[in-house]
Backbone:
């Protein structure tokens, strides 16, 4: 599917904040629970993929001329597998192509197995200032269940090496609610991690995603399903323990030390502009949602057949974009409400009204009234937010904020 992206016009005095996401889809092995757009054993594509990634960055040059890049995020896959040389070329292209903020948050996702002190040092020299590492557990048996190839000792070694070379913004991903996991081993993982004082923690409940090897093992009865009651107990304990450790919970699954919230993810949760570059990358930009083709080989082919015509027709033809939509008003209002309620601060009434010229309490009066009664929502003079109970059962509320489920919404979505 070929997409034509027209140039947007903005005031020359206004620079609009935007986040840049770059997808690196390659992995050494793919974990059994993972349903991300990631592939093992495709190393031979890396040189051509890097060249295509650079070309796609350049294709967006004019479209972002009125934007300032506030965050850059290398995700995957396993971005830490990318060579320093390739990272250097990609990063140099970003800075040569876009207006990058002087205080840009620059994150790279990594696995402990790929990170040596020398590699980390060179990453810091390239300007990467935030490291996000997939730890998941500090229990060897749990790592084996998740098909993770690293050991707890490797995690500790990488944390120490990262600190040594100057990384002072470190996020660690952890997973609770594992199959047959009770509260004690989860406590042990969290306590061990807290000894190293990461600036940010992302703690996610295990989800069994259809199409993954883990899903089929559970479906066939080879493994039991995770216990949601135990996962809820683990989550409640985590909230209390991290609060005691002076971490601020700012989103359902995310905690940080003061002033270390993830700027890039806040762009998502506030439903602001971000541009996804690479195979399978998704974007929300200039009021449109669109996505690139998943398969890396096809992505390479289609990007190489894309082109610009700024001198004549004033547009670029993006052949790698295989799906796009322009959400109507009702969908955008709904997306903003659902994403905003993921934040612990909730939705500020004045901010929502300024953005949409409507009172959210009136727009979603039925859903809000219902869930104030169920106890999933709390309302203050200035904001609407999830209660402690709502943090556990957020999806029960979110479904009632979808446009087709609220009788007060107009402009029904065409999704």
Residues:
């Amino acid at each position: 599917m070929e997409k034509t992206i027209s140039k947007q016009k903005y005031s020359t005095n206004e620079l609009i904040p935007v986040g840049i996401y770059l997808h690196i889809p390659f992995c050494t092995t793919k974990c059994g629970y993972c349903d991300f757009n990631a592939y093992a054993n495709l190393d031979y594509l890396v040189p051509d993929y890097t060249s295509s990634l650079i070309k796609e960055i350049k294709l967006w040059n004019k479209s972002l001329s009125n934007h300032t890049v506030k965050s850059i995020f290398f995700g995957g896959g396993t971005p830490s597998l990318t060579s320093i040389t390739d990272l250097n070329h990609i990063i140099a292209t970003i800075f040569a192509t876009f207006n990058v903020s002087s205080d840009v948050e620059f994150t790279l996702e990594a696995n402990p197995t790929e990170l040596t002190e020398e590699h980390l040092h060179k990453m810091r020299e390239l300007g990467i200032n935030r490291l996000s590492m997939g730890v998941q557990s500090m229990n060897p048996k749990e790592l084996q269940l998740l098909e993770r190839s690293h050991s707890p000792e490797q995690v500790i070694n990488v944390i120490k090496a990262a600190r040594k070379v100057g990384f002072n913004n470190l996020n660690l991903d952890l997973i609770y609610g594992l199959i047959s996991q009770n509260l004690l081993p989860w406590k042990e993982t969290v306590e061990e991690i807290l000894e190293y004082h990461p600036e940010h923690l992302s703690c996610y409940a295990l989800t069994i995603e259809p199409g993954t090897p883990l899903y089929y093992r559970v479906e066939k009865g080879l493994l039991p399903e995770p216990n949601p009651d135990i996962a809820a107990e683990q989550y409640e304990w985590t909230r209390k323990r991290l609060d005691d450790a002076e971490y601020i919970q700012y989103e359902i699954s995310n905690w940080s030390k003061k002033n270390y919230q993830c700027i890039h993810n806040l762009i998502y949760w506030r439903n602001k502009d971000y541009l996804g570059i690479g195979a399978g990358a998704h974007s929300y930009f200039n009021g449109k949602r669109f996505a690139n083709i998943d398969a890396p080989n096809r992505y390479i082919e289609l990007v190489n057949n894309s082109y610009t015509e700024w001198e004549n027709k004033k547009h670029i033809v993006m052949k790698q974009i295989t799906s796009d939509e322009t959400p109507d008003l009702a969908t955008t209002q709904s997306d903003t409400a659902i994403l905003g309620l993921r934040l612990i601060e909730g939705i500020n009434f004045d901010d929502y009204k300024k953005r949409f010229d409507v009172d959210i309490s009136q727009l979603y009066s039925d859903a809000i009234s219902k869930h104030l009664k169920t106890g999933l929502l709390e309302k203050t003079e200035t904001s609407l937010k999830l209660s402690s109970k709502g943090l556990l059962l957020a999806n029960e509320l979110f479904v009632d904020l979808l446009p087709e489920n609220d009788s007060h919404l107009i402009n029904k979505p065409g999704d």
